Each structure stands twice: as C-alpha cells, then as structure tokens.
C-alpha cells in the first residue's frame, strides 16, 4: 500500500475514535438555530376576496380621475405659463342626438367627426345601441390625447371603417371592399373551426361527458357549418382543412370559394366591417359569417332567425378559442395572457354585434 493511502487510513481512525487532534474544515463559530416562537392561535385567516364593482362604479372612478387630471394640468399650466390642450378633456358632457334623420354623438355642442376625413360621424337611426356605446366610449376618456390612440377608441375605429367602406362604394372605386374580401377569404382554408386535433388515444384527456378534444371540435364545427349551409350558402359542402393526419391545410372543393366570395361582396358596409373585425379576431370566417348573419339588421339576416336562440358573443368566443380553453383546463392558465386575450376576444366580437345589429329601420 502506498504512503498516501496509509495516511488516509490513520486520519480516518482518528476521526472515528474522536481524537482531539482532528481539525475542522471550517473556522466559523457553532451557533444553535434560533427558532421563532409560534404566536398565532386558531385557524388561518380567510383569503382576501375582490370587492364587487359595477359598471357605474368604474365610470364614476374614471370621471374622478379625469377631474383630478384636469386640475393637475391646470395647476401646472398656470405655474409654467404653458397650455397643454391634448392633456385636457375639452368636453364635459357626451350625448346622442338625432340630426337630419341620423344619430350623432356630441361632445358638449360639437359633433364627433371622422379623424381622417373630418366629416361628422352619422349613424343610422336604427342603431341607437351603437350610438350609445360610442358615446360611452368617449365619456370614459380622460384627456384629448387618449382620443389619438386607436386602442382606446376601438368602437370609434370600427364605425369609421364602416363609413370608409360606404364612402368608397359611393365613389365607385370599391377598392376597400375588394381588399377586405381578399383578406377574409384567406381564412377559409385555415379556419380555426376546421382545424381539428388527431383522433383521441388511450391516454388522452376527456371532459365530463367522455368527449375528447377532437369530439368537441367536430361537434362545434358541425353546428356552425350546418347553419351556414342551410341558411347562408345552400348547396355547398364545407370540409375540415386539418383533421389531425396532415400538417398542410387543404383547400375547399371547387366552387365553395366562389359562393362564399359572392356572399361577402354582397354585404353592406356595416356588415362587411363587422365581418372583417370578427374574422381577424377569431381567425375564423365561418364563425364571423354566422355572427354577422344572425345579428345583422341588413339584408344578410334581417328577421330570419329566432332572437332567443342566437349565436351570441360567448358562443362565438368559445367556438374559436376551443383548443386554448381545453389546454388551459389541463395545464393551467398563464396569468395576464390567456385571461386578457379572452376578454379582448369578447370585446371585439361584442363590437361586431353592436355594429351590425339594430331595430331594422333604415334611414
């Protein structure tokens, strides 16, 4: 045995016998742990719960914020000798008035105008809900600077989009209509309702009814496809573009695209703007077409469907967001991501319903 090995054995025997010649590896002083005493008694307190708030509470809070902002801006302007008009809200009251057989939103006494053309925003008298929602959107703004940001006035942007389409059609150009038609038809071959998961395996998760993700997707798509082929595009057959056995979407059969294109081109300006918003929000032409058809006061769906059993905003959001909801139930939700996206989808689809619906009275 070599010398280093004998030395190691001697040190090991000394450590085992508790020899006083053993040296510690560290040089810090040994201290006992200081355990904090347990002072609490009884069960733990209940988790905090959020305070229930209504829409009116939110409106009042935003108005108070606007008043505080206005007071602060006025004080700074008086101190610096400067005026900041964009930081102030130059209107106090927002109202809806009927002028020359059209609904207008007035900021005090000034009518709301298109940000590009500067023309007065005129809504059909059959759309009082849309006019009221538009007025509420402007009443929630706290400064004129916020009115320059489109994400803070989404409904105003959507209404102006419809007015732009109507103006372009009246001029005979029709370029906006052609561009929208081309854009939404691209989603026919990648529709979110027609992209299905592979058939369920032995270990795949199922819901309470025993259905797999594939089963739920087939059932959801069948309801919308059946409605559209019965009421909107009769005589055509719509097939899934991805059924789990391929990675490249397949095109619909010959003639399907032409029928859908003819229907899209025949929509009025309000319906076309609503269809564009719905398709871009849900990535689904089928869901957007059904939503517009069931809620439109125009020729696309006036008085043809039961008002108590319509394809509403919640149903449309669930249909286009089906796989995401399935996965979040299984793996959990990413805070400030999935929940925010879901609320934004509801907001956009709700604006479509407001835009195309009405009392059915034309101007």
Number of helical regions: 12
State the CATH class of the domain at 174-356: Mainly Alpha
Helical fraction equals 40-55%
Mind telling me the C-alpha Rg?
Answer: 32 Å
Overall mean pLDDT stands at 84
What is the element string, with H for helices and E for strands?
HHEEEHHHHHHHHHH
Summing up helix and strand content along with how strands pair, one would put the structural category as mainly alpha
Based on the structure, what is the oligomeric state of the protein chains? single chain
Main sheet overview: 3 strands, antiparallel
The total beta strand count reads 3
Strand order of the largest sheet: 1-2-3
Task: Describe the model.
- With 363 residues, the chain is mainly alpha-helical.
- Among the domains are: 91-152, 2-Layer Sandwich (ATP12-like); 174-356, ATP12 ATPase (ATP12-like fold).
- It contains twelve helices and three strands, in the order ααβββαααααααααα.
- Strands 1-2-3 form a three-stranded antiparallel beta sheet.
